Amino acid sequence: MEWLFDLYWPHLTFAAGVVIGLAAALHAAMTKDDVRAAVGWVAVILFSPFLGAFLYLVAGINRIRRESAQRRRRRRNRPRDAHEEAALSGSITVPALGRLGDSISPFRLKPGNCITPLSGGDEAYPAMLEAIRGARRSVALASYIFDHDAAGLAFVEALSEAQARGVEVKVLIDGVGSRYSRPPITHTLGEKGVETALFMSSLSGLRLAYANLRSHRKIMIVDGETAFTGGMNIRAHFLTEAAGDDVAHDTHFKVTGPLVGELMTIFAEDWEFTTNENLKGADWFVHDRAPQPADAPHAAPARAVPSGPDETLESTHAMLIGALGEARERVMLATPYFLPDQQLVAAFGVAARRGVSVDIVIPLANNLKLVDYAMTAQLEQVLRHGCRVWRARGPFDHSKLFTIDGVWSYVGSSNIDPRSLRLNFELDVEVHDPGLAGWIEERLRGRIDDAVPETLDSLAARPAWKRVRNRLVWLASPYL
User: Fold this and answer.
1) Is 418 within the bounds of a domain?
2) Structurally, how many domains does the chain consist of?
3) Is the peptide bond before 106 cis (omega within 30 degrees of 0)?
4) With contact defined as beta carbons under 8 Å apart, do 431 and 300 qualify?
């Protein structure tokens, strides 16, 4: 047999390449919903069968299908009780978006949630640490990045003290995000005896196929009663004391009310997916939780909207397009990374051409240069339809805030880019509350007042080599 292989190995290699390439190309053509993605993968595979098929295996195949899908569908179809219907009556600020969310999210819109914005690590971290120190039964914490620095070590200390008091503590960190600092915080958590798991932790063996998937969610739930979520990782550069003038900004939210149970459900499903341990019982879930009084600050209908490369794929994408279609007066958006696909570009453009005021706030100085180049190359697509783009001066702002007409908001972990909208596991919250929407609008107007407007003229005024560079980087935007 060896002589046969030695004689015919070029033919056998060619035949294997043809078979593997055709199989991978056929799979891409049959499973990709976006024709551009399908054509792109087929071209890569056919022009380089072995390498292309390997890249497709690693980054192109959606393998994530949660066993919880049936449970989520049952939750989606569960009718509201009479008390919830009465409490919701007249309080849903945009009814069409309430109905849209009912069809997209696994959670029903529920009344009586208090959602308090926390600006930056200077406000968020002390509130979170105080909640951990007051925990009686459980702490569940999930973060994309959990750095080994002053901020991270403060959380480790509070978590280990809680565990020493008999509190059950679970920490879930993304496998990629855990590598942002050296040494990884997981070593210190382990030394303290805090139970920690890494989401998609291995980049070898069978896990190699998941290397492009990440959990970008930020959740902390204490005693099943109080939660924190939003866009902020655990890093010292969000603290003025540690970072000084270079402190980064972000927005997090403290939550009480029925929404807490939804956040705990999402954490529990992620924890079970990662560790096969099922979190249940009164330590983690508070049943029959009474909604907050209707006159409490920011007491409002709200729901969690999880998204990711599983059965919740494109949830946030659909919510944003729906909101842009329902806007009547104004849309205000802040995101550090703005790389919408053509459907979202069209939705922004149609809103602006309908006479809706559309303001998009992005950082003047971005922490990811390549992403900034790609963003700049694409801004013309929204500017030419009448949207306004503002580059905010000052420290880098990592906030993800979206609001329409001063009555409805969508906040959380999702950026407006291909990774957040299709690859990452994200968590956002839909809120029907003029109070919260007003807070967001006031914050964004403050950033706009000191911002540099980006216009078609300012884009054209850039040197030709920069415009070419930006456009070339933009071609790789789905993979940034």
Assistant:
1) yes
2) 3
3) no
4) yes
Domain span at 337? 315-479
Are 277 and 328 part of one and the same domain? no
Question: Could you give the CA distance from residue 6 to residue 167 in angstroms, rounded to a whole number?
Answer: 65
* Tens digit of each residue's pLDDT (9 = 90 or more) over 196-241: 999 976 544 444 444 567 899 999 999 999 999 999 999 999 999 9
Question: Which of 22, 38, 60 represents a domain boundary (last residue)?
Answer: 60
- Collapsing DSSP to helix, strand or coil, 116 comes out as strand
Fill in the amino acid letter for 233. Answer: N
Letter for the amino acid at 206?
L
Tens-digit pLDDT profile for residues 260-299:
999 999 999 999 999 999 998 888 998 645 455 555 555 7
- The half-sphere exposure of 311 on its side-chain side, counting CA atoms within 13 A, is 14
Spacing of C-alpha 332 from chain mean position: 18
Q: Say whether both 156 and 286 belong to one domain.
A: yes
List the one residue out of 435, 388, 249, 420 whose CA is nearest residue 320: 420
DSSP string, 120-136: HHHHHHHHHHHHHHT-S
Coil, strand or helix at 312 = coil
Please list the helix, strand and coil fractions of the chain in percent, rounded to the nearest 5, in that order. Answer: 50, 20, 30
- At residue 209, φ and ψ (nearest 5 deg) are -65, -15
Residue 105: name the closest of 304, 320, 326 by CA: 304
